[in-house]
Structures are given as structure tokens and as C-alpha cells.
Design brief:
- The protein has 171 residues and is an all-alpha fold.
- It has one domain.
- The longest helix is centred in the C-terminal third of the chain and has 25 residues.
- The chain is globular, with a radius of gyration of 16 Å.
Length: 171
């Protein structure tokens, strides 16, 4: 049985889920001014070191599109939140972390707010255990997508890669 939701919770789900679905559609289909999988893939590979870029773009787009639709409709909240948390954790790790917390400096405050919202929605819908589990699964998914899979595909940022700035990382 689905728990009853307040109007506020429903609005959060629909708006945040809809925005994520739209963001994923930009990556997957080039809708809403997006660059589609090829353009996003080129950016992922050339700017973020995520190789192969096309696969990374499709994976991120599917997580955002599918996770957003699931969140908006309240279907499988822990799974939806895990997929979306993975993309937010990846964005923090690959783009924002070294810039500090504040978005005015390119930091991760927006991503952290979204992670907190996903945690709270999952806790409300499915309980604290699922909220913790979805966050852990999102972190694992981020590592797999940008670490193990990236390394297997020959990307530069896999778990065996030298840290950025290390002379070995430019070899």
C-alpha cells in the first residue's frame, strides 16, 4: 500500500522528478536545448575525462530520465533516488568538489540540497533504512560509472589512475 502524501510532498516529487526527467531527456534525445548523447558524450570525455563519453552520457541520461519519471510518479522511490543520487554524487566528484560548497564559485551546494531532498523523500516514503541504502547505492553507482567502468574502458579517471595533478597522471 502506498503511503499517503501531502500536497507539499507531491509538488516536490513532480517538480524535482520532472526537472530530472527533462535534464535526462537533454542528454538522451537532445530535447529542451540539450546536446543529445553525442554532444554530451563529447563533453563528458573531453572535459571530465569520462570515457567512453557516449556510454557515460547515455547512462547518466537514463538515470536522470528514468529516475525522474519514477520519482515524479512515486514508483520505486528508493530505486529512483539511488539513480538520481548517483548522478548528483558524480557531478560533485567530477565537477564541483574542488570548488568548495558555494554555487557562486561553481561548488556543490545545489547537488547537496538535491541529495538531502532525495534522502528525505525516500525516508518519508520507505523509511530510514531505504534512505540510507539509496544513498549508499548512489555512491556505489557513481564509483562504478566513473571508476571501474571508466578504467575498463580506458578512461583516465579510473580507480587505478594517478590523482589529478600527479605527474604520473599526464603520462
Amino acid at each position: 500500500m502506498m503511503p499517503s502524501m501531502s500536497i507539499g510532498t507531491t509538488v516536490l516529487r513532480v517538480v524535482v522528478g520532472g526537472m530530472f526527467a527533462g535534464h535526462g531527456a537533454q542528454k538522451l534525445f537532445g530535447w529542451f536545448g540539450g546536446h543529445g548523447p553525442e554532444g554530451t558524450g563529447q563533453f563528458f570525455e573531453s572535459s571530465l575525462g569520462l570515457a567512453p563519453g557516449l556510454r557515460q552520457a547515455k547512462t547518466a541520461g537514463a538515470a536522470e530520465f528514468g529516475g525522474g519519471l519514477m520519482l515524479a510518479t512515486s514508483l520505486g522511490t528508493p530505486l529512483a533516488a539511488a539513480a538520481l543520487s548517483s548522478t548528483m554524487i558524480t557531478a560533485i566528484r567530477k565537477v564541483h568538489l574542488d570548488k568548495g560548497p558555494w554555487v557562486s564559485e561553481g561548488g556543490y551546494e545545489y547537488n547537496a540540497v538535491i541529495l538531502a531532498l532525495l534522502f528525505a523523500l525516500t525516508d518519508e516514503d520507505s523509511g530510514l533504512g531505504w534512505a540510507v541504502a539509496q544513498l549508499a547505492a548512489g555512491a556505489a553507482g557513481s564509483w562504478l560509472a566513473t571508476g571501474a567502468l571508466n578504467e575498463a574502458a580506458g578512461g583516465e579517471n579510473g580507480p587505478g589512475a594517478a590523482p589529478p595533478g600527479d605527474p604520473a597522471s599526464t603520462a
